[in-house]
Amino acid sequence: MKHRLHRAEGYLKAEIIGEAPEKFIRICMREHVKIWHIVRKNETTLICFIKLADSNTLKKWLKASDCRIRILRKAGLPFFMKKMRLRLGITVGFLFFILLLLILSNMVWSIRVDGADVKLEEQIRSILKQNHLYEGSLDLFIPDTGRLESALSTKLTKVTWIGVSKEGTTYKISVVQKKYPKPKSVTGPRNLVATKQAVVQRLFIETGQPVVESDQFVKKGQVLVSGRIGNEKASRFVSAKGKVVGETWYHSEAQIPLVSQYTLYSGNTYFKYKLKMWHVQMPLWGFKSEPYKQYDREIIRKPIRFLIWKTPFAFIQENYRQKKTVVRKLTQKQAIKDAIESSDKKLLDSLPKGSKIVSSTVDYKKVVNNSLYIRTHQVVNENIAVPKAIDVKKEKKKLKQETD
Amino acid sequence: MRKWSAQFKKWFAEVSDIPEDVVLGVPRLILTGQFRLSIENYESVLAFSKTELRLALNKGELHIAGDDFVLETILEKEIVLQGRVDDVRFVDN
């Protein structure tokens, strides 16, 4: 037990040989050099443990006491270090090997993409590369699979479902691509009819016979452009084609709070990195306990693998995103503007492409409990024509009856 | 004169409750069983062998006889001896 105390400093087990080895002990005592576990071997020899001292001074003391020293054993850290220094090459090589193995064990070796065509696969791989996932990247810096999935599915529109799974050093990406049905087009004889009540504004007709005029009020389902051309005696049916812009009206209601609270991310992020060993977490970087007053915390855990085994070590990244509560106060004028803007946008989203809001007017407004109720109506110009197939036989019969 | 001061020290130790070895500078021996002997307030090691240890005290010598002696610890003021202790003797010279 005693020896262990001196391990850090280093000690010798030595034989002191001389006429009066006790003299050496006395000198050691005088010079305050630790010496312990002394055993007499024979008349001229003592075996003892002695703390490591400068070899020159040791020699001086030996000379003064007429003794010789024979070192039996060298122990302790200084000798160990010396030995290590001699074997530095091997040690460094071994450590390097372990490190290399560790790095290789935590590397992504392959990414398999199933169910995607070549073009989509290329796209997927480029998105993954933006998220630090590529063949040869380190696992520690890759976001978790759920996050990858959402990153992929937000950027890829041609995909119905995407799944990311991890098997050891392989990432598997399964894709189900959207299959669109071929757009069905009525190519046979057809009319164009109104989709909704409107006042016709302009007609752009490629083929067909217009049956309505500008500024005419039309009901839903009314024929706008007839597919029957020619006079009553000699008529034929064509596929009517064209656009009819009608003026339509919409009502919308909105409620906008005049005072509202938002939580916003300020954009400041604080990163903490930790190394988890069994149940102990050792911080590596980022030592503030509470970086922000208000924050959202996200923890990413990455277990460190070694070959096929999971080590009890894990790399933990904690992201603290600063939050801010913002109070927004609106004047009535601003609130009305906002309400109109938002209702216009909502309306346009529900209407076919190419529609235009001509005007929006406020019908009614009222402030109750710090929030504004508003009713507006919009005048919209939109294409109201949709094709509708003509039953040729029926029409012909009808025609016959008319002519008869 | 010297005798008088020794007398005074002895009296002082008795009166003041301070341990005598501190005041007088005399050795203090602690013998544990027969196998371990700790000696405080010694001067130096005169001789050491498997069967005998001779210590110089500030007055006289201490001879310890026995067998299988090992000097477990040597400090400036204290020495610990292990082994079988048969005989402890104070020798005046």
TrEMBL record, chain A:
It holds the Pfam family YqfD. The chain crosses the membrane at residues 88-109. Keywords: Membrane, Transmembrane, Transmembrane helix. This is Sporulation protein YqfD. The gene is yqfD.
UniProtKB/TrEMBL annotation, chain B:
This is Sporulation protein YqfC. Pfam families: YabP. It comes from the Bacteria. InterPro entries: Spore_YabP/YqfC, Spore_YqfC. It comes from Sporolactobacillus shoreicorticis. The lineage of its organism: Bacteria, Bacillati, Bacillota, Bacilli, Bacillales. NCBIfam families: spore_yqfC.
